[in-house]
Amino acid sequence: MADNQEIVSKTHVLVVSFPAQGHINPLIQFAKRLAFKGLKVTLLVFITNELHQIPSSSIRVETISFTPQTDNSNCIHGSFFKNLQDSVSANLPEFIAKQTKDGSPVSCIVYDSAMSWVLDIARELGVAGASFFTQSIAVCAIYYHLNEGKLKIPVEQPSVSLPGLPELDTYELPSFVYNTKDYPQVLSVLYSQFSNFREVDWIFFNTFNILEEEAMNWMRSLREIKAIGPTIPSVYIGKQLEDDKDYGCNLLKSNNDCIGWLNSKETGSVVFVSFGSAAALGEEQMTELAWGLKRSNTYFLWVVRETEEKKLPSNFVEETSEKGLVVQWCLQLEVLAHKAVGCFITHCGWNSTLEGLSLGVPMIAMPQWTDQSTNAKFIADVWKVGVRAKVDEKGLVSKEEVELCIKEIIVGEKGNEIRKNSDKWKKLAEEAVDTGGSSDKSIDEFVKELVNKSSQS
Predict the structure, then answer these.
(1) Among 112, 246, 371, 440, which one carries the catalytic annotation?
(2) Which of 156, 225, 391, 410 is the most exposed place for a label (fewest CB within 10 A)?
(3) Which residue in the list 23, 145, 338, 347 is annotated as catalytic?
(4) Domain of 160, in residue numbers
């Protein structure tokens, strides 16, 4: 037994993240869980700006800076992907060689699926490779069908039926699918996630079996995959890892003043509003949302990034100071876990969706782009843990609709049913990551398989 533990502790996994907050978060949590199982784990992040780190005793975090050859470092631009690939290709082999020289050779590279070409580097170095998908299986299944040519774009029919998925109206598909003229290079990257789908050694999804059961079963008919989520700090779900209170690597600094403000509010009385680290509302939509929050006459905590503040209506913060608090950034999980929060207005990014679901917070879906429309479909119609805000003829969610949705959840009859469903999914998420749960078992299986593979090579 002791010999086996020694082998496990010497098995080194390198986790390589795409440089965006929504990708770093699940990968760093997966890295922590691998370390909890006894492996030696290093997280490597290629970054364009500062990374605010909270020291972790279980994993090592390394960064390599690169400068995109464009005035816009936004990762939706094609040049960004090319610059990133060039930087990784130039630096990763040297980094891995240094690990070997230091007596800790890398046994496996777990890489973000958006960086599928990392597998080529791993193969050249004789290292095993594992692809980590940061979006839902449902969304990934759509991209798989596109890659295989089984779903044609532009999508001309009003709805599509795909195996393992509910029938989806065209607007419920990822935005890159129904609006192909925008960001065509990003769509090609999303396709490429499946370029080595059958060659990679392991495939991980940040989800859990019962959450996307039909899509999971269909994907498993193609090849073995492992659901290992939700990848959320352990203090909020599972409680396996001591002192795991935060993701630990943030591209934005948080404002912790909001917790004191929440402490003064009654249970379930606050609407939390956040559109993540990348989504940006238009000025007209920002105005409608602002006045909708005011009209609802409920307490609200709204995260408005510094770059978005200029879109707020003039005097809005002052006029709503008795009911609302606007901050530039916060620790979202800490807020969602607070008893005062009764509703989450979200863009439906996959991480935010999993966080709201895992913490049992009813959601109002206001998807903006990429995978968010599909996630909103599942929130409202499949898991029934929220409502989707309706858009008008201009594609905007009106202030009246914002008010209606808030009241529907906070005080309406439908809100009672949504809260029951939210509690149900919270328990199921907890069971999945707890000791012996489906996601915990998947990680155990990977560790065993990797150690056996490493000992034979």
Answers:
(1) 112
(2) 156
(3) 23
(4) 1-248+433-455
> pLDDT digits over 79-89, tens only?
788 889 999 99
Round to whole Å and give the CA distance between 16 and 32.
13
Report yes or no on 267 lying in a domain.
yes
Does residue 299 share a domain with residue 240? no
Helical packing angle, 413-433 and 438-456, nearest 10°: 30
For residue 25, what is the domain's CATH number?
A: 3.40.50.2000
Cβ–Cβ < 8 Å for 402, 296: yes
Assess whether 424 and 443 both reside in one domain.
Answer: no
Q: 321 and 297: one domain?
A: yes
| 112 classed as catalytic | yes
Average pLDDT over residues 207-214: 98
Cα distance between residue 417 and residue 398, in whole Å: 25
Whole-model pTM? 0.94
Amino acid at 14: L
On whether the CB atoms of residues 292 and 284 are closer than 8 A, the answer is no
Number of domains within the chain = 2
201 is catalytic: no
Q: pLDDT tens for residues 219-230?
A: 999 999 999 999
